[in-house]
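=== RUN LOG ===
request id: a7f3
mode: sequence -> structure
chains: 1
length: 470
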Amino acid sequence: MRFQSPSFASEAGRAPAVAGQFYPAAPDSLKNFVQEYIAGGRPLPVAPRIIISPHAGYVFSGPVAGKGYATIDPKTTTVIILGPPHHVPVRGIVAPSAAWFETPLGRVPVDRERIKKLLDNPIAYIDDRPHAPEHSIEVQIPFLQVRLSSFKIVPLLVSETDPEKAAESIYPLIDDHTLIVASSDFSHYLTQKEARVEDDKSIASILAGNTDGMIDACGEMPIRVAMILAKKMELKPLLLDARTSYDTSPEYGADRVVGYASIVFVSQAAAKSRGNSASAAPRHEKSNGVSAETKIFLLTLARQSLEASVKGEKLPDPQNIPEFAQENRGCFVTLTLNGELRGCIGYIEPIKPLYMAVMENSRNAALSDPRFPQVSPGELPSIKVEVSVLTQPIPLEYTSPEDLLQKLVPDVDGVILEQGPYQSTFLPQVWGQLPDKVQFLEQLSLKGGMPRDSWKTAQVKRYRAEHFSE
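=== RESULT ===
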């Protein structure tokens, strides 16, 4: 049942509900803790517009949250905080009547003008009852108070609603100086091993931009709304950190842990520029040297193979094949739809002529990528094709995990991990989503069905890839 607060015009505020429980009640201690957590992160070349940040007690989730807040723009003037309700059921988007929110670091004004604009939507309303005891929004505010000098907040609890409609309602509130915070922890009360597996599945859905994918999180709805907003704003996700309460506070045990992640969304142009800026990094192999004419040939062949496969027709019979395309080469074909991954299949090793590999991988990316349903004919006009031609993988010798981390070159090295019967690879462009070397290697281990820390002892190969797209 909705409750329209009669006090929206008053200057009453919301007092802190969890100071002294989730975080220190003493201002100096609180500020020192937050500064320490933020110091554990590092700025990005371009500040994110959206972040996913945990909301547990700071002793558990503070180090992970700090990674995200270290990247935000200090000139931000408005922060829309999307949190899940933990105490009072909510249906739709619920704003408070409060004129300000208070923490031990002071008061932060609520942007009532934006809330009034939001209330034009039927799924949005005012109700102070779920806000009064709620921590999911409150614990984000001290981080903002430390990082920003002058700002207002739009505190919204979101639950039991259509995320598309929620995103449509919130989108008009965003301007160039707005940050969106989706407040959420991930899996709850699993064992350490189980939580790692479950959280990795959720994180994979977010990094793939799969708004309908599996997400095990108390803030599932805020996360899905943030993902939809990211698509509208043409932003790409980057994973900064992912840990459990056992990872941050092992003294509390590994039997019932909670998962946390810090994920930020940056402009696609900024994400692409990260890869371009690394092009001058030292490389140990010769370039593939794919000519412009060969690129056109391969992209045309990939497009023809894609369309033939989706329509149930035979693969094309190419003529006048360039000499380079007749050489055995490893290659991947990547399909994207509206900027999001739609399929990616390839051969790491040079097991057949490049032109044949392009045809087969175009078909497989469309019909056989286990992460996605088969591409439908109606999607073909909107799908973009990218071809990646690989150099011959060569072994990367290392003496310790630290030595391996030192030798890897982000945005340049494609990496292969092998351990027993297991093998997996990430193309160089994956560094754009997983810029941290440890996170990159952990996710690569998990992708291959290996334990998270297998990269420390696995056989490692690296290669370069030349990418070109329609």
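=== NOTES ===
Confidence is low (pLDDT under 50) at residues 272-288.
The CA atoms of residues 24 and 392 lie 55 Å apart.
=== END ===
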